[in-house]
């Protein structure tokens, strides 16, 4: 995937209509619910999904997660951009 295919750091991801985070009592964890699917996310992806409010930029998400997890901000931002691009292709997030 080229950089041109990735959302800009200034993009503000938002969970798509009908997509939400919910606690699944069977799995005892938070999952992403979408029409006809349930998606489990690792802790880092879950942190990104929780920030998908349409108000937080990808760059701000990266700065926050890099601080929280003690990771390189540029690497975190690249990972978030790839994740958001994948979620957008699957119509689970929209970019504001």
From TrEMBL:
Matching InterPro entries: PQQD, PqqD_bac, PqqD_sf
Highest taxon above the source species: Bacteria
Pathway: Cofactor biosynthesis; pyrroloquinoline quinone biosynthesis
GO process terms (BP): pyrroloquinoline quinone biosynthetic process
One Pfam family it belongs to: PqqD
Keywords, ordered alphabetically: PQQ biosynthesis
GO MF term list: quinone binding
Oligomer status and interactors: Monomer. Interacts with PqqE.
Name by which UniProt lists this protein: Coenzyme PQQ synthesis D
Organism annotation: Tistrella mobilis (strain KA081020-065)
